[in-house]
Amino acid sequence: MTEPSFPAMRMRRGRASPWMRDMLAEHRLHPSDLILPMFICEGRGCEEPIDSLRGVSRWSVDRLAERARQAADLGIPCVALFPNTAEALRTDDAREALNPGNLICRAIETIKSAVPQIGVLTDVALDPYTSHGHDGVIDECGCVRNDETVAILAQQALVQAAAGADIIAPSDMMDGRVGAIRQGLETAGYSDVAIMAYAAKYASALYGPFRDAVGSAGRLKGDKRAYQMDPANSAEALREVALDIAEGADMVMVKPGLPYLDVIARVKERFGVPTFAYQVSGEYAMIEAAAAAGAGDRDALLLETLIAFKRAGATGILTYHALDAARLLNNRDV
Fold first, then answer.
1. Pick the catalytic residue: 112, 255, 268, 310?
2. Is the pLDDT of residue 222 over 80?
């Protein structure tokens, strides 16, 4: 079909008024599209601001319920939990990950008891628990041992499911871990627990503030490029997603977000499964730094980047801006 030409077609007619723009919007952003990541620390009554993540803090378990309640009241359906494990509990074999009384399990139980209407997503990976900062156990050469790590991850998932987690989110990028976790959950009777696989997690330079938040910064020996994806590759992401779906993932994630909109779009078009984006700590920090430097309006910047994820095909977004974005969205549509 040939498009009519000017002046029969004036594209500006559709942009002439707020109500017209709203009526013709192709994509919409809603608080229910958002997941709020929260960092957990030991202690009581604690809030520990994270210097590299302006406006974000670690919270002690007893303070998490109020944050989760804020999220639920704003229409955010789910929170994601990440622990900052005490130094004395970090070991080469990450044994604290399997402790039913560990920080993340106590946080799950607290939130599900106080705010039962909100979903809880938990990170399955060993880097918050290892002394060396890798997402798995390492050999004498410093290489992560895939199959031994997978066995631990499957146990970790069971511990979190028993504590009440609704969504298990393996972020480690080990081969075969989704299948092992799914089999373990089914065998143990947790068939209703969903898996959101970090299916395409890239070896990105944008994770720095997150590593500060969970206490793994500065301890990493080597890097994670032997298991996280090369930023140059997108076809590889489709293979990773296909494997995770075949192994039992209910949802998949692309991480980071904005620099990988093409990957989000390809995944959603190819597979049609619920596809999430993680607007990671470095992306958040750049928006905050740009706004602080006067380079743009903060609210406009965060909403524009979030709608970009929806336009690319994302089902939802994990973002540290979730509370602020939900407040803005509850006052106006985007």
1. 255
2. no
Quick: pLDDT tens for 227-238. 999 999 999 999
Q: Is 221 a catalytic residue?
A: no
Distance, in Å, from the CA atom of 313 to the CA atom of 259, rounded to the nearest integer, reads: 14
| CA neighbours closer than 13 Å in the CB half-sphere of residue 160 | 32
Token duo for residue 14: 């559709």
201 catalytic? Reply is yes
Which tokens sit at 124? 């399955």
Which residue shows structure tokens 């066995």?
151
Choose, from 201, 224, 268, 310, the residue flagged as catalytic. 201
Q: What's the rounded mean pLDDT across residues 216-235?
A: 89
Reply yes or no: is the peptide bond before residue 7 cis, omega within 30 of 0: yes
* Amino acid (one-letter) located at 158: L
| Count of Cβ atoms closer than 10 Å to residue 184 Cβ | 19
Q: Domain coordinates of the chain in residue numbers?
A: 34-331
CATH topology of domain 34-331: TIM Barrel (3.20.20)
Taking the model in full, what pTM does it have? 0.95
Strands 316-319 and 34-41: parallel
Distance (Å, whole) CA 242 – CA 177: 14
